[in-house]
């Protein structure tokens, strides 16, 4: 990883991995990043985790795409069959001119036959351009990205009940809290630098309440660890709120001043006494009561949640419960109080803010609002586009199967790994008659491409990203892209021109200036300011204000300034265990690997630490199966089957198996269920009925 003193230049930027958004200094020698240090960003204060510190060398991997590639006419049928070291059997190199003309010919004028997936790994400017490309160029809203697979249900509930899809308080505010709930999140693995703040909070005496069907490292620091039954979240949270109502621990003044629909919520909660819910959620009534009292009687409390909450068909209901819990206790809008869905990718907040979703233009302005659309088309100098919400990620794949969508432009996403019931998605990708993939590697999705456009890694380009804390941060290029690879904003701009759009951007700064015209969230945040200060939190109230870490202290962006209680009823998981599939499969990430693994599995240190596809089972379950730790098991659901190495892990319940989704050789999403939450349209990745058997592997 290089000698720490041996570098020519250093460039301040942002970690390309998780939503914490740690600021880094990239040390460069001979156009290579040789090592990385944490610097004093607002989210990390110099700290980095193993991915941020050692996960950068994927940038220089031999597999980087350096020239546009066009599928050969004599290539084998589309499938997951391209060897990255021997791609010439399937693709041929092309000039940029030929490649862009080929893309434009395949997309231009095809209207609703075209759909697009952008990426939370790209910058705000790139996300903005991508959604504009689809809306302006093709007249509809069939554009989405991986927020649909992580926190779409959280955002749906927050917009509905609080009026804003972002966090109400930065995670660093935990330093002012005296109680914090972490539910359905494993920050030590997935938001490691945020987890260091949570541990510090516990060490100084804060009450840390961890709720998760799977045990985790934060348990060691928790005052309460509620290892509840998978899928029983709503029952458990309603039981806790029942106690707060029954014992009159709620904040009457706050509720009267700032909320609506309280009486309906109160009446609904009457059906959830802890004594009745205890067996359902697997947590005894006294513990539920103790947690309710601790949270309600605290001076300041925060709630953090992750994909364990959101990735259910009742994901929106889970978030509604958490919002109601914060509102009834008045734990919003003060130092140390607030709601914080821990965002996954380094720019998933920003990409959503920039309108890379099918129902909203930038700043969550509805596509159905005529005034909103005309404000954008005026800036774009273009005609009106559809006033109907577009299709979401999984709906787009269904529309490909139905023959309604025939061409796609995919920038930086990897649906051939990340979609639920992934063979369904892979079959859809194979059916497309034009698939343009823009990426830095020959990903599983690029295997199905008709055209691959070589793009830039984060350390090779300029642009802003927005982290889980609403902090807009400046990313700067430290090295030049390999070969003929180009920055993503520049590729999309050139493709738009060839598709007939009149785009005149010379730099990401031009794009940012246009974004500001219709995004109030960016008021007082300019490119020059970010270049000077590195980060500004939105909302920023003046050109000098570093931004507001806490919002909604004096009301909410909803009618009459009031947040809403939306009662949540219990909805059972879609794919429940039975005699044939008796256990529960849950999927997630590991510390060393990032999402579909395209970057971290090409990082020497990270891949050396965690090189093999694995799953975790309780030691007693392994004994019952007759499998030694390190042996192999076959996991089978109604969708498919994988064989994978098994680890013994007491944190996993007896009837559960945990499978990370970064490994193509045992792709977790071959097994997962595509049933959707009706509001956020997020799939139920966290719960599938599964059969686990011993497997013989040579
Ligand atoms: Fe990067 Fe997240 Fe680790 Fe920070 S915590 S170094 S942003 S992966």
Question: Could you characterize the architecture of this molecule?
Answer:
The protein has 698 residues and is an alpha/beta fold. The chain contains 24 helices and 28 strands. The strands form seven sheets. A seven-stranded mixed beta sheet has the order 5-4-18-17-16-6-7, sandwiched between helices. Helix 3 links the parallel strand 6 and strand 7 (143-144). Helix 3 packs parallel to helix 20. It is globular and about 70 Å long. The mean pLDDT is 96. The structure holds iron/sulfur cluster. Residues 15, 17-18, 20-22, 44, 48-49, 51-52, 191-193 line the site of iron/sulfur cluster. Keywords: 2Fe-2S, 4Fe-4S, Iron, Iron-sulfur, Metal-binding, Oxidoreductase, Repeat.
Q: Can you summarize this structure?
A:
With 698 residues, the protein is an alpha/beta fold. The two termini are 34 Å apart.
Mean pLDDT: 96
Number of helices: 24
Q: Structural class, please?
A: alpha/beta
First-last Cα distance: 34 Å
Rg of Cα set: 24 Å
User: Which distinct ligands sit in these coordinates?
Assistant: iron/sulfur cluster
Helix content, binned percent: 25-40%
Strand order, largest beta sheet: 5-4-18-17-16-6-7
Largest sheet: 7 strands, mixed
**Morphology:** globular
Q: How much of the sequence is in beta strands?
A: 15-25%
Low-pLDDT regions: none
Tally of extended strands? 28
């Amino acid at each position: 990883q290089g000698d720490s003193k041996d570098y020519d230049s250093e460039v301040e930027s942002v970690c390309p991995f998780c939503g914490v958004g740690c600021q880094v200094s990239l040390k460069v020698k001979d156009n290579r990043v040789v090592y990385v240090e944490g610097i004093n960003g607002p989210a990390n204060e110099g700290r980095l985790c193993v991915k941020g510190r050692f996960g950068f060398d994927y940038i220089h991997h031999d597999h980087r795409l350096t020239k546009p590639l066009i599928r050969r006419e004599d290539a084998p049928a589309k499938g997951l069959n391209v060897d990255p070291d021997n791609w010439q059997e399937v693709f041929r190199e092309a000039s940029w001119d030929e490649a862009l003309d080929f893309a434009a010919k395949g997309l231009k004028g095809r209207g609703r036959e075209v759909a697009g997936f952008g990426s939370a790994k790209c910058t705000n400017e790139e996300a903005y351009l991508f959604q504009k490309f689809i809306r302006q160029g093709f007249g509809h809203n069939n554009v989405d990205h991986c927020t649909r697979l992580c926190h779409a249900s959280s955002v749906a509930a927050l917009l509905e009940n609080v009026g804003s899809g972002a966090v109400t308080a930065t995670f660093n505010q935990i330093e002012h809290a005296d109680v914090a709930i972490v539910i359905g999140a494993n920050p030590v693995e997935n938001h490691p630098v945020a987890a260091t703040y949570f541990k510090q909070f516990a060490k100084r005496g804060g009450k840390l309440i961890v709720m998760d069907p799977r045990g985790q490292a934060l348990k060691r620091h928790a005052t309460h660890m509620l290892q509840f039954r998978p899928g029983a979240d709503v029952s458990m949270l309603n039981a806790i709120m029942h106690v707060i109502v029954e014992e009159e621990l709620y904040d009457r003044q706050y509720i009267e001043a700032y909320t609506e629909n309280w009486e309906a919520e109160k009446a609904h909660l009457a059906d959830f006494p802890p004594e009745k819910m205890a067996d359902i959620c697997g947590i005894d009534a006294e513990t539920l009561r103790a947690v309710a009292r601790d949270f309600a009687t605290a001076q300041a409390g925060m709630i953090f949640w992750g994909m364990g909450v959101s990735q259910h068909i009742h994901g929106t209901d889970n978030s509604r419960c958490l919002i109601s819990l914060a509102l009834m206790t008045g734990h919003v809008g003060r130092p140390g109080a607030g709601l914080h869905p821990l965002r996954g990718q380094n720019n998933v907040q920003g990409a959503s803010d920039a309108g890379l979703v099918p129902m909203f233009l930038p700043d969550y302005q509805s596509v159905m609002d005529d005034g909103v659309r005309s404000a954008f088309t005026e800036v774009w100098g273009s005609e009106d586009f559809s006033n109907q919400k577009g299709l979401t990620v999984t709906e787009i794949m269904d529309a490909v199967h139905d023959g309604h969508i025939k061409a796609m432009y995919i920038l930086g996403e990897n649906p051939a790994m990340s979609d639920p019931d992934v063979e369904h998605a892979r079959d859809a990708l194979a059916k497309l008659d034009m698939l343009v993939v823009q990426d830095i590697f020959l990903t599983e999705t690029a295997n199905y491409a008709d055209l691959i456009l070589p793009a830039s890694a984060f350390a090779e380009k300029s642009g802003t990203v927005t982290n889980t804390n609403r902090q807009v941060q400046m990313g700067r290029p430290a090295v030049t892209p390999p070969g003929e690879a180009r920055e993503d904003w520049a590729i999309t701009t050139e493709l738009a021109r060839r598709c007939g759009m009149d785009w005149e951007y010379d730099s990401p700064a031009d794009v940012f200036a246009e974004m500001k015209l219709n995004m109030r969230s960016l008021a007082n945040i300019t490119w020059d300011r970010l270049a000077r200060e590195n980060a500004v939190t939105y909302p920023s109230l003046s050109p000098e204000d570093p931004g507001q870490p806490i919002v909604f202290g004096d009301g909410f962006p909803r009618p009459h300034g009031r947040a809403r209680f939306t009662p949540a009823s219990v909805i059972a998981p879609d794919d429940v265990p039975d005699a044939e599939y008796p256990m529960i499969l849950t999927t997630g990430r590991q510390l060393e690997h990032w999402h579909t693994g395209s970057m971290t599995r090409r990082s020497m240190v990270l891949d050396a630490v965690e090189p093999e596809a694995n799953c975790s089972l309780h030691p007693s379950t392994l004994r019952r199966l007759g499998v030694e730790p390190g042996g192999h098991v076959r996991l089978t659901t109604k969708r498919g089957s994988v064989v994978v190495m098994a680890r013994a892990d007491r944190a996993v319940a007896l009837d559960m198996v945990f499978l990370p989704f970064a490994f193509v050789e045992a792709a977790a999403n071959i097994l997962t269920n595509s049933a959707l939450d009706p509001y956020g349209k997020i799939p139920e990745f966290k719960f599938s009925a599964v059969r686990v058997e011993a497997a013989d592997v040579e």
